[in-house]
């Protein structure tokens, strides 16, 4: 199993999360590309820290929405969205090369992530961007979403992702952050849920029902309060149960 987190999201004097601590825990890092968060110097610091620890790096692409942290819905044209995704990945590839690592996968962020899980037009735009830039990039997407099949149909390798610190609807979608109980904070609860998921292939939805969920990677959001404690609890619980934690892509430079 892979354990990932969204990192590189600090901006100037505004600090977001504890990248150094998270990089000692996770196996893959979804690094911001400057559109929803992150500044070049901070992103480079995070990439260097990831390289030093052998953590795999992914491009955490999003809508151009610094004020809303990429969590506001947008409706760009296909021409814009394809170019925006290529631009963000390309920027991170350059910084990663300078840091002695490489970008091996792409995980969309926030509103873009949730939109393309079900919106085929925007999904196809993101898939097109990856294919036009580097068809070898892996796409990380919401477990159980149609996006996984759409990407496979066009030849991309995909990784299905589950969220440790988010509540699920009975239909397998993430509960909107606007609703009570959408974000989980208790490290022990989060760790128990993820061990249950790994053992059974199911997760308990917000109404208590059980949802079938096949996942290759588990995410703990780096900006969540108590993120480090939650990620550490998940790692310890899984490893204690004999679950090996490894990146799904090779973190080494080519």
Automatic annotation (TrEMBL):
It holds the Pfam family LamB_YcsF. Its EC number is 3.5.2.9. CDD domains: LamB_YcsF_like. SUPFAM superfamilies: Glycoside hydrolase/deacetylase. It catalyses: 5-oxo-L-proline + ATP + 2 H2O = L-glutamate + ADP + phosphate + H(+). Gene3D superfamilies: Glycoside hydrolase/deacetylase. Keywords: ATP-binding, Hydrolase, Nucleotide-binding. It is an enzyme of class 3 (hydrolase). The keyword ATP-binding applies. Signal peptide: none annotated. Forms a complex composed of PxpA, PxpB and PxpC. Belongs to the LamB/PxpA family. Catalyzes the cleavage of 5-oxoproline to form L-glutamate coupled to the hydrolysis of ATP to ADP and inorganic phosphate. This is 5-oxoprolinase subunit A. It comes from Castellaniella hirudinis. The lineage of its organism: Bacteria, Pseudomonadati, Pseudomonadota, Betaproteobacteria, Burkholderiales. The gene is pxpA.
């Amino acid at each position: 199993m892979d354990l990932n987190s969204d990192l590189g999201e600090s901006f100037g004097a505004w600090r977001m999360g504890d990248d150094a601590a998270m990089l000692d825990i996770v196996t893959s890092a979804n690094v911001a590309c400057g559109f929803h968060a992150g500044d070049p110097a901070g992103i480079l610091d995070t990439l260097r820290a990831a390289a030093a620890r052998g953590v795999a790096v992914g491009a955490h692409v999003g809508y151009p929405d610094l004020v809303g942290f990429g969590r506001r819905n947008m409706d760009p044209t296909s021409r814009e969205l394809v170019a925006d995704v290529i631009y963000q990945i390309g920027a991170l590839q350059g910084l990663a090369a300078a840091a002695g690592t490489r970008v091996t996968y792409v995980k969309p962020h926030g509103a873009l992530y949730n939109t393309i899980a079900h919106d085929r037009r925007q999904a196809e735009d993101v898939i097109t961007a990856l294919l036009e830039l580097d068809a070898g990039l892996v796409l990380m997407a919401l477990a159980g979403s149609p996006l996984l099949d759409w990407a496979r149909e066009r030849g991309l390798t995909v990784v299905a992702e589950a969220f440790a610190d988010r509540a699920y609807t009975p239909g397998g979608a993430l509960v909107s952050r606007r609703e009570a109980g959408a974000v989980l904070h208790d490290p022990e609860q989060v760790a128990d849920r993820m061990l249950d998921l790994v053992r059974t292939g199911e997760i308990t939805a917000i109404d208590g029902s059980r949802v079938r969920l096949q996942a290759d990677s588990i995410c703990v959001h780096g900006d969540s309060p108590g993120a480090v404690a939650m990620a550490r609890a998940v790692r310890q619980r899984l490893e204690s149960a004999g679950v090996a934690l490894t990146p799904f892509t090779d973190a080494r430079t080519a």
